[in-house]
């Protein structure tokens, strides 16, 4: 059962990326290089990304519960659980339309945003903080040298990506979406591999 739940965590991590990549490429009026992943939760097909946040976040949270026993680290499991729950919250509370998406929306950033948008921002900040934190913890608690280095590099890259995306978002940089996607891929691939490693150890 533990192994199955850990593989569920891997599936949730990687399915999240596959879903937003395919949805973003095929969504009319959506510009993946500029627009944030969260904007995919808006418009007629918004339910796809909304479900992606919630389903994959729930799968990651379930996997996090099994990490404590498989890898012997409660702090690592807790931080991954926070990450998963924050993804779920990101789906429950969508961002506001802005910056040209959905089509017909003003290209500007509104001066006032809804409560749901503010909650989405808080959840997003937790998402991008928790994953580098989990990688940093893993760098200390995992015994394998390769995993220590991989996790440390992921923590550094995730932190740099989080800061770069924050700046790009605040300045409405035309490549903000690309910066976010690079950061997500680095972190989510590491997380999926970590779950797979935990499944192998526990099996």
UniProtKB/TrEMBL annotation:
InterPro entries, A to Z: DUF998
Keywords: Membrane, Transmembrane, Transmembrane helix
Domain of life: Bacteria
Pfam families from the UniProt entry: DUF998
This protein's name: DUF998 domain-containing protein
Transmembrane segments: 6-25, 46-68, 74-93, 122-143, 149-166, 178-199
